[in-house]
Specification:
The chain is of the alpha+beta class. It is built from five helices and 16 strands. Strands 5, 6, 7, 8, 9, 10, 11, 12, 13, 14 and 15 form an eleven-stranded antiparallel sheet that branches. It starts with 10 loop residues before the first strand and ends with a helix.
Length: 260
């Protein structure tokens, strides 16, 4: 259910450094004020999808709803921009709840790095040679060897991002699934990935790691020279995205499946 207008008395605005976003925040601050995010009832992000991902990471554990308005390049996660009627739009907005991935990556020095991702966790070759990867699901080997540029695990929210560019499956936003997608696979040539339960743990082991080094990236956070990476959805963290009626994230993802 959508909150009442009184739920959004205190608004915190965040904006990307683009001229369009900076001009927008000046206009919005003049009309609605701008409180410190820690005191806000809602966060309004002004920019593109990159700014939205940064905002989701920044306020990941705050439980504050986040409403984006498009003042950037790509606006898949954003609503249309308007100065007028913001509190009424917030009150009428529909909430989409998403959960991030948590990555635990062990590097060649034995260090363990934990990172979270809204869209995807990707493993990439670091050298001219293809990566050799072993894939386990919940501890059981499912692919003894994948020779490829890499592999990724995507959330439903991220399934239309890099995952789609890598020919991965688009997942409806409310489906309890993860996409496991190879990146430029060489062997096995015909393997196009898998859809997994969102409670599964994906383990990726790097074979010949000294000769074929691999980096792991959670959205924008990179860990280099990884030996083993565990990936799963973090159901303990819920992110609340607000969308205008008729322009919800689930509708956009559904429409993407029929786009060319």
């Amino acid at each position: 259910m959508s909150p009442s207008a009184s739920s959004f008395k205190r608004i915190a605005f965040v904006a990307s450094p683009t001229p369009e976003a900076r001009a927008a925040i000046v206009q919005l601050e003049a009309r609605y004020d701008n409180v410190d995010p820690k005191d806000a009832d809602v966060i309004v992000a002004l920019g593109g999808d990159g700014l939205m991902l940064q905002t989701l990471h920044r306020f990941m554990t705050s439980a504050k709803p986040i409403y984006g308005m498009h003042r950037g390049t790509v606006g898949f996660l954003m609503n249309e921009f308007s100065i007028d009627g913001l509190r009424e739009r917030l009150a009428a907005a529909h909430t989409t709840v998403i959960h991030p991935l948590v990555m635990e990556a062990r590097d060649d020095q034995g260090g363990v790095h934990e990172r979270r991702a809204i869209n995807e966790v990707s493993l990439f070759r670091q050298s001219a040679q293809a990566a050799r990867l072993r894939i386990l699901i919940d501890g059981k080997e499912r692919l003894a060897e994948l020779v490829a540029d890499g592999v990724l695990v995507a959330t439903p929210a991220g399934s239309t991002a890099y995952n789609l560019s890598a020919q991965g499956a688009i997942i409806p936003i409310n489906a309890p699934l993860l996409a496991l997608t190879p990146i430029s696979p060489f062997r096995p040539r015909r393997w196009r990935g898998a859809l997994l339960p969102d409670k599964a743990t994906v383990t990726i082991e790097v074979m010949e790691a000294d000769k074929r080094p691999v980096a792991a990236v959670a959205d924008h956070d990179e860990v280099r020279f990884v030996r083993k990476v565990d990936i799963k959805m973090d159901h303990a963290i819920s992110l609340n995205l607000l969308f205008d009626p008729g322009h919800s994230l689930d509708e956009r993802i559904l429409a993407e499946q029929f786009g060319f």
